[in-house]
Amino acid sequence: MSTTITRTRLAVVAAAASIALLAGCSSSDDSSDKTSAAPCEPAKGKVTLQYWNTVPGMDKVVDLWNKKNPNIQVETKNISNDQYGTLGNALKAGKAPDLSQVGYDELPNLRTQNAFVDASACKEATAAKSKFVPWTWSQASFGGTGVFAMPQDTGPMALFVRSDIFKKYDVAVPKTWDEYEAAAAKLHKADSSLTMTFFDPNNAEWFNGLLWQNKAEMYSYADNKWQVNVESDQSKQVAEYWQKLISDKLVRTDLANGSTQMYAAYQKDQIASYVGAAWGYSMFRDNLPKQAGKWSIVPMPTWGTDGASGDWGGSTVAFMKGSKHLYESVKFNTWLNSDPEALALENKLGGLYPAANAGLKLPALSQGVPYYNNEKIFDVFADSSNKIDTSFAWGPTQKTVNLALQDAMAKAAAGDGTLTDALAKAQATALKSMKDQAIPATAGK
Amino acid sequence: MTDTATRATRAVTPPGDRRRRLNGGGPRAGTVIAFVTPFFLPFLLFYLVPVGYALWQSFRVVRRSGGQYGTSYTTFGGFEQYGQVFQNTEFWSSIGRIALFGIVQVPVMLFVALTMALLLDTPLLKLKAFFRITAFMPYAVPGVIAAIMWSYLYSPQLSPIVDLLGDIGLKPDFLGPGAILWSTANISTWLWTGYNMLIMFSALQSIPQELYEAAKLDGASNWAIAWRIKVPIIAPSIVLTTVFSIIGTLQLYAEPAVLRQISSNISSTFTPNMLAYAVASGNNYQQAAAISVVIAVITFVLSFGFMRLTSKKAGL
């Protein structure tokens, strides 16, 4: 008797458990969100917001806000371990925070996963447009179609140069990519163990910054379809340029950006320059203290007379679907990313280079930096920031495309194919991955 | 454990049933459940349900309605995901790569492990405990840590090994496109040889000494004893370690994923598991589920196939 009863009970419990789990999973299929603007009503009484990010010291910035705003308390969670994995799982489980850090290049992807809510019903959100560097707002608002995120930081690109090496071999600091190639050849000829820079095939984000500089418009939307144009003439020009440097052995391909191995190569004076972003200034300062005074930061080499610059990295703070406190989220988000006091603290603790216009004029960003010979390096980045193409757009399956691009670039670096082939692979992957996600897409003209 | 079990038994067994239970019949459901639940519940929650979920996902496809950022939903797609797995050249080249890895690495590792186990088992060797612990030690190092350690030993910028070889005129490229698979295999071998050795060694320990005495009386050399007596007797252990190694090879992830941080010659699709992870990180969970199911089936077929093939000879 008891056997039958317990066995049945156990079976029932097991079945209930699996049904509950399966139901929990399948409910994620019901994405009822229609990215139309959500209502913007202030809550009655005290509100607690959840804000996920990957920025060191962000809890201190939030403490500052919490002290000033007893009725809008913010709780932070650092998700730098697996930013998009954590966020993706939370979204699937319907437990996303009110606000989360999202990189510019991941915005379209997450929007196709119905991750965001449009905050444009809040006046303060739409009014924030003028506070930010134009391209950042363009991406956070998806070309002005709503307010899905507030820009936080950017990575305007510039050229880091070892002035002492250039001086030693009497090579002028290059202003264009043509001059850069010529200088690379000169340096390598003078010292065969010296190369101009390294090309990290596993860093699609960096390569995308180079494509952006050359105004490669990879994604657009027309005729009810995404127009995929990864393999454009502008992209090919960049790919062919770096392929030539690789083939001529003027750049190394065996170093990963930010790796111990990379710093070791710089430490041994084997590399003369670094095509980097604003947030990179502290990398060299902190990892190569002995090279203080030897580095300068100059504008990124340009294509011909075009002065355009590129961006590498940076993030937004996005309004996540399911937030019940949009009004308060907008208030906090605007303060977090445009208030000079908040920006100064984020810059100090997290090394963020602000996306807000007010941030570019911070006292900390107007002074000379001792490591770089007291040069006002942030003037170079601010100038770069204003020369970044505002119409550049990311694709909805950017991460998958980046991986395919990297794998193919690594093959090219190992002598199997070229970087132009890698672009073709990225183009094919973009179309295939969008098809897998049922996103209508076609090869652009 | 025992306490809980006894208490549970008491709770469901009326006192009068005690004698019957001692006689071997009677309801022992309480005991069974008390013993089985701690295993079965986690097994259900963390094994059967996820596997079931993956199976279910692998038969779904994403569809979307409306506009540039339309709303997505999933629907039944039959074998569509599996069709894609079979057409995915990257999947099959990762399987091919791992097959090459396994065909070379598994026999080498097991041969070394067997040799070490046999050496430890001979009366000739001194300091046995020391050698046993030393050989087993790498297994105590977590795979990721081992891979990080080896990645330093492979790096031209940092490695004393590369520097030393450089001094005698060699320029090895452990992270190059041709060598990277074998550099990975080396880490796995370093990690797992001691573990496999210990399994074989404990099997050797259980062989009764009388057998050796009898063999010696018949004039068998140490070599003949090792080859004709020890190896055949511990064959089941060798089969077991082979099956573990086949499974481990197909699930290879940590070592190449760590080496990928410093070498672009490990692609995001280097091993089947890395491919599944890459696909999942691109939100294509359904395709990742199908890939995982196919990997599981291949693992199942290979390990059970190997066991069937060898079971008669090994006496399993």
UniProtKB/TrEMBL annotation, chain A:
InterPro entries assigned: Bact_solute-bd_prot1 (IPR050490)
Q: Does RNA-binding show up as a keyword for this record?
A: no
| Signal peptide positions (record) | 1-23
Record's keyword annotation contains Phosphoprotein: no
**Keywords, ordered alphabetically:** Signal, Sugar transport, Transport
Designated name of the protein: Multiple sugar transport system substrate-binding protein
Q: Which organism is it from?
A: Streptomyces pseudovenezuelae
UniProtKB/TrEMBL annotation, chain B:
Subcellular location field: Cell membrane
This chain's source organism reads Streptomyces pseudovenezuelae
* Ranges where the ABC transmembrane type-1 domain occurs: 95-306
- Which family is this sequence assigned to? Belongs to the binding-protein-dependent transport system permease family.
Region described as Disordered = 1-24
| Record keywords, A-Z | Cell membrane, Membrane, Sugar transport, Transmembrane, Transmembrane helix, Transport
Q: Which SUPFAM superfamilies match?
A: MetI-like
Q: Would I find Metal-binding among this entry's keywords?
A: no
Q: What is its main location?
A: membrane
Pfam families (UniProt xref): BPD_transp_1
Mind telling me which Gene3D superfamilies this protein's record contains? Answer: MetI-like
Put simply, this protein is called Multiple sugar transport system permease protein
| Compositional bias ranges of the Low complexity kind | 1-11
- Where does the sequence pass through the membrane? 29-56, 98-120, 129-154, 174-192, 233-254, 288-307
* Membrane topology according to the record: Multi-pass membrane protein
Which superkingdom is the protein from?
Bacteria
